[in-house]
Amino acid sequence: MGIVLGILAGILSMSIAEKLLHKNLNVANGSLEYIRSFVLLLVAIGIHNLPTGLALGTTMKTDAFSLSPLLAALILHHIPEGMALMGAMAFVESPSVLFVISAVFLAVVLGASIFIGFLIGDNSYKLNTLLFGGAIGTLSFVTFHEILWKAKRKMRFHEFGLYVLLGLLFVYMFLLLIH
């Protein structure tokens, strides 16, 4: 139940963030549309980093033996997120300083959530469930609404299908590598 509530909360929060960004950014300019997508992806990854940091923080406090595999998974987990940000940044046409600021922001969010997870300890299972659901909801919203839906409108169906299948294959191979 916590995962479902978290997913719904994540989707709702991203819908609200999109409405606020759409209201404050005029997307008639194609470049601003890409900036909005980049910001939504950044917010989603930031929210997604909360449960990751909490899990790492609680693990640091309770079981140091499982910390190494979790840390390795954390590092591998951030590779596709960085690739997604770099891909979104390629369309923004702004200096790379924005990417560095974004990376620092995400690192601060992750570091703060690790610290909070360490303070909370291992009594946060219900909170972690909600946060993991929120992470799934936010990234799902951005993946389907901001990335896939917009790409589908600009490509032929067979091209789009090929890219989606290649993406799913990449995710499957990535999961095989981690587990």
Structural overview:
The protein has 179 residues and is mostly helical. It contains six helices and no strands. It has helices spanning 2-24, 30-62, 67-92, 97-120, 125-154, 157-178. The chain starts with a helix and ends with a helix. The model has no long low-confidence stretch (mean pLDDT 76).
Counting DSSP E segments of at least 2 residues, the number of strands comes to: 0
Q: Please mark out the parts with pLDDT under 50 across 5 or more consecutive residues, or reply none.
A: none
Main sheet record: none
SSE string: HHHHHH
Helix content: over 70%
Approximately how much beta-strand content do the residues carry? under 5%
By helix and strand content, what is the structural category?
mainly alpha
Distance between the termini: 26 Å
Number of helices: 6
- What general outline do the C-alpha atoms trace? globular
Based on CA atoms alone, the radius of gyration comes out at 17 Å
The overall average pLDDT, rounded, is 76
Write the layout of secondary structure elements.
Layout lengths: L1 H23 L5 H33 L4 H26 L4 H24 L4 H30 L2 H22 L1
Key attributes of the depicted protein:
88% helix; 0% strand; mainly alpha; 6 helices; single chain; 179 residues
Short description, anyone?
With 179 residues, the chain is mainly α.
